[in-house]
């Protein structure tokens, strides 16, 4: 997209890249092999080799980039390749959405990409079954959703008129703005943080029906949601209630998917919460209750740093970041950007508590008047803050090998699933308990986990990288995932690794 358009559409958080798998009529995924970037349809599940990134081009065209950072291509003779370093005529396609949600992919030579068994070409003139593909999004399904025209966010609302999703929030603040995109046989459902499904008439339902399923229609990096009656979701009226209304796509029907950063509360040793209530920029621990002014968003400074020790920026509802005040060690929430080191903090994790170290080398503590100030050379009692992760009341976990879920016909958890389970999270001031469909997460004698426990067990969360955390079990170990699916509390707490980092 042109830079002017990108600037116009800039949101509170980063817009997610469109990453997905393409599934053919036989249930096989379009796959790029590492050897010579050969393209086939042999993949049985969505893994690294099956993930493609959509890159919008001019005039509504698109290109597909694979995990090798090469582009899908199709020449005039229909030969398919996956080894192009740059986008040219052979690497540019149209996406043609069908009524059932599947898409046809048409080259600039007027031919359609198709694959059967292990045979691939792009030579069909007509759209036949073998030329239809199901889009299976590879992004983490917990997102923020922003309307292009209103430039506001969808969030759950319960008022005198009942429960609904309204596209009325200026910034996505709190658990109500976290939505889940659920994949169901080529279509998608929109689910609220408390487990309700969006029905096409704007109501919310506890059970999934055809009225809750939508086809994704792509438009230059944006998306529209089409229901079974061929009408598109939009924000209706002064209340901006999200429901199906129109048969054509305008800016009102277009949405952007954005990253859902962790949002947290910090409690001082006095039991009072850190806050910027009353319009002040001074961060003070003076509130015994919490509203939006006591919620802060954590943003990793280096989104690629998976060492487990990345630095963080802390953002308030006023859209500004914490930083060291000018000529002082006091913490103020007035930085426009987090690029200055004064707005960057290191975190020390201590069970349900954290300590924040500022760029001056000192830890942030609460002074007697409640003001936060980075003046302590050590982690003293007043530099320990209770930590509550508030915008994941439902948790979907993924590692480099797949999603976390129950084994088939077993309550045991594994981490190599292509589909995910959703777990309820019960938070008690930084102590977390997870519950599945059959019961609580419980550690077993061999340090693996089941989800049919009659009684809950305690866990701690440590936010260690961009949208990734370590989970500490009650044996003091990190939960670790293996390529064979083993999900166990056997990770060494002195060494964060990709095996102990869980995308949330």
What kind of sheet is the major sheet?
A: 6 strands, antiparallel
- The total of beta strands comes to 49
| Rough outline | globular
Helical run tally: 1
How would you describe this structure to a colleague?
With 504 residues, this protein is an all-beta fold. The strands form 19 sheets. Strands 29-28-25-36-33-32 form a six-stranded antiparallel beta sheet, with no helix packed on it. A four-stranded antiparallel beta sheet has the order 5-4-1-12, with no helix packed on it. A hairpin with an 8-residue loop joins β26 and β27 (284-287). It is globular and about 75 Å long. The two termini are 29 Å apart.
Summarize the structure.
The chain has 504 residues and is mostly beta strands.
What features would you highlight for this structure?
504 residues, 1 helix, mainly beta
SSE topology sketch:
Layout: H1 3-8, E1 18-23, E2 29-32, E3 39-43, E4 52-56, E5 62-65, E6 71-74, E7 80-84, E8 93-97, E9 103-107, E10 112-116, E11 119-124, E12 134-137, E13 142-147, E14 153-159, E15 162-169, E16 179-184, E17 187-191, E18 197-198, E19 204-205, E20 215-219, E21 222-226, E22 232-236, E23 241-246, E24 255-259, E25 263-267, E26 273-275, E27 284-287, E28 296-300, E29 312-315, E30 321-324, E31 331-335, E32 346-350, E33 353-357, E34 363-366, E35 372-376, E36 385-389, E37 394-395, E38 398-399, E39 402-406, E40 413-417, E41 423-428, E42 431-435, E43 440-443, E44 449-453, E45 460-465, E46 468-472, E47 478-481, E48 487-491, E49 502-503
Antiparallel strand pairs: 1-4, 1-12, 2-3, 4-5, 6-7, 8-9, 10-11, 13-16, 13-24, 14-15, 16-17, 18-19, 20-21, 22-23, 25-28, 25-36, 26-27, 28-29, 30-31, 32-33, 33-36, 34-35, 37-41, 38-39, 39-40, 41-42, 43-44, 45-46, 46-49, 47-48
């Amino acid at each position: 997209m042109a830079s002017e358009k990108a600037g116009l559409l800039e949101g509170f958080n980063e817009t997610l890249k469109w990453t997905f798998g393409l599934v053919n009529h036989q249930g096989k995924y379009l796959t790029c092999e590492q050897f010579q970037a050969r393209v086939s349809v042999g993949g049985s599940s969505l893994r690294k080799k099956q993930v493609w990134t959509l890159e919008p081009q001019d005039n509504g065209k698109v290109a597909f980039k694979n995990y090798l950072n090469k582009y899908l291509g199709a020449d005039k003779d229909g030969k398919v390749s996956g080894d192009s370093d740059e986008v040219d005529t052979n690497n540019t396609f149209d996406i043609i959405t069908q009524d059932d949600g599947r898409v046809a992919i048409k080259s600039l030579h007027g031919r359609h990409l198709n694959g059967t068994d292990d045979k691939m070409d792009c030579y069909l003139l007509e759209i036949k079954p073998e030329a239809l593909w199901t889009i299976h999004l590879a992004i983490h399904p917990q997102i923020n959703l922003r309307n292009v025209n209103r430039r506001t966010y969808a969030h759950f609302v319960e008022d005198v008129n009942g429960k609904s999703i309204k596209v009325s929030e200026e910034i996505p603040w709190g658990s109500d703005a976290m939505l889940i995109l659920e994949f169901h046989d080529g279509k998608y459902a929109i689910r609220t943080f408390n487990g309700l499904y969006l029905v096409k008439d704007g109501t919310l339902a506890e059970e999934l029906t055809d009225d809750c399923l939508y086809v994704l229609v792509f438009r230059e990096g944006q998306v529209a949601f089409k229901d079974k009656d061929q009408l598109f979701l939009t924000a209706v009226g002064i209340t901006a209630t999200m429901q199906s209304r129109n048969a054509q796509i305008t800016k009102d029907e277009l949405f952007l998917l954005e990253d859902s950063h962790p949002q947290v509360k910090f409690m001082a040793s006095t039991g009072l919460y850190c806050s910027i209530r009353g319009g002040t920029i001074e961060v003070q621990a003076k509130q015994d209750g919490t509203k939006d002014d006591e919620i802060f968003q954590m943003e990793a400074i280096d989104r690629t740093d998976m060492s487990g020790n990345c630095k963080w920026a802390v953002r308030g509802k006023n859209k500004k970041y914490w930083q060291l005040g000018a000529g002082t060690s006091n913490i103020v929430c007035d930085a426009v950007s987090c690029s200055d080191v004064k707005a960057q903090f290191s975190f020390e994790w201590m069970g349900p508590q954290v300590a924040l170290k500022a760029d001056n080398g000192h830890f942030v503590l609460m002074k007697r008047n409640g003001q936060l100030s980075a003046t302590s050379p050590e982690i003293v009692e007043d530099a320990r803050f209770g930590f509550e992760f508030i915008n994941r009341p439902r948790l979907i976990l993924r590692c480099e090998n797949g999603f976390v879920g129950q084994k088939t016909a077993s309550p045991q958890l594994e981490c190599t699933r292509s589909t995910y389970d959703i777990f309820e999270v019960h938070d008690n001031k930084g102590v977390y308990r997870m519950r599945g469909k059959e019961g609580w997460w419980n550690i077993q004698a061999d340090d693996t986990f089941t989800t049919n426990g009659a009684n809950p067990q305690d866990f701690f969360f440590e936010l260690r990288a961009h949208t990734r955390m370590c989970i500490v079990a009650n044996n003091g170990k990190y939960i670790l995932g293996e390529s064979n699916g083993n999900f166990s509390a056997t990770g060494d707490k002195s060494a964060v690794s990709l095996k102990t980092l869980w995308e949330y």
